[in-house]
Amino acid sequence: MADYYPLLARALEAMPDRSPALRKAVYERARSALISQLRSLDPPLSDADIDLEARALEAAIVRLEAERAPPEPIPEPAPVDSWQDLPESVPGAPEPEPLRIPPRAPEPFLPPAPPPDLGPTPLLPPEAPVAAPLIPIQARKGREETPFVDPADALLMPPEPAPSEPGADETTSEAGGGRQRPRIDVVAPPAGRSRLVRNIVVGAVLFTVIGLIAVAAFLLRDKPADLHPIAAEQPETAPSGAESKYADRIGGDPAAPLPRAPQPNVSTPSSAQPSTATPSAAPADLTVAQRAVFYEENTSAANAPPTVVQGRVQWRLETVNGERGQPLETVVRANADFPDAGITLTMTINRNRDTTLPASHTIELAFTTDGLAGGPKRAVQDIGLLQAKEEENARGSPVSGLPVRVRENLFLIGLSSLRNDIERNTDLLLHRNWLELAIKFNTGSRAIINLEKGTAGAQVMEKAFAQWQ
């Protein structure tokens, strides 16, 4: 289940007006886009998964609305029923007259009275001695006599210190009435560190899924047939330092270069489009196959050299249908094939037109893994960020974005929509001749795919970015 709170929060922050009506419109658009995009995935998701993602979106909306709700008014304190609250005087009342005390008259002098005659004093019987009780009464613990203290003096006396020993509480309870109350220990709540760590971990995982749900469905829709014919050209020879570069990346000694049979140049004339084609479609361009190299980690022995498989990649500029009445959109598509490794890659680069998604462009990566002859069938489980570099054996610079996993063999990379990141990503994709992608199979082995742009790829990229401006 994903958490859409970061995406919705960033979308609301980018809006100049955050009134409730506009926020509600953004929420409704996010709901409809999420449901339609999830149902358009191929293979389709189950109803339970779609309902789970919809509930996650609703939870994010409730959280955003709770944060933007006006604070509750502070209740006014109740009036105090006290003589101090009464006004000193009532408006309109007459001024009270000052109290006059009459002078005290002097008391008359009286002679002292004679003592009363009470008669002879009666004889009192002697007091009988107090008999000792048959059963001695022992003083109860803590039943010590307490000297009498005047209440007025008690207010001036400092409070007695609390007992520091465990037995002091018992003594006090017994002296107060002989019955001890049960003592309940208050357990202090745990520190917020575990909660903070949990929120960070869950937020990181859910933020990764955000790009999947929001960006993936935008790309995974019905695509028309290819509008451009394919022409193949003989790939160039691989540079000698490619194997050593891979050894530096994943370990192991460099492998010897493998011979590769030359492929004849094949060109196909451009075929006519059907009469029903939209006039706004881009003109057909011939595509030329460029070099592609697949380096796979060799786990058969320690420090074993990696396996190097040569392939080819074809760059095309295609036109696909827009979303809901939008005009045709231009995309860059690269098809890489490695027959000896049993894997193919289709990479599609498209401009993001959905304003609710914080991404300038999206890169879809779809793998097909047929497996090697006699070997187990495998699938791509994870990928890294796409990297751009000048030469095949150079270290690449990653693009600014976030890779997300849709399912096995299908991934998306959302490029950052910040201004500086857009300029940097555009420079990397336009002016670097090689693109590198690190992948990991479900068997645990790792591999690196290098794609050469060449002249054909550079022209396709330049035309696409010129139309995206």
TrEMBL record:
Residues 93-128 have a biased composition (Pro residues). Keywords: Membrane, Transmembrane, Transmembrane helix. Residues 68-129, 151-187, 230-282 are annotated as: Disordered. It comes from the Bacteria. The chain crosses the membrane at residues 200-220. Residues 267-282 have a biased composition (Low complexity). This is Uncharacterized protein. It comes from Methylobacterium gossipiicola.
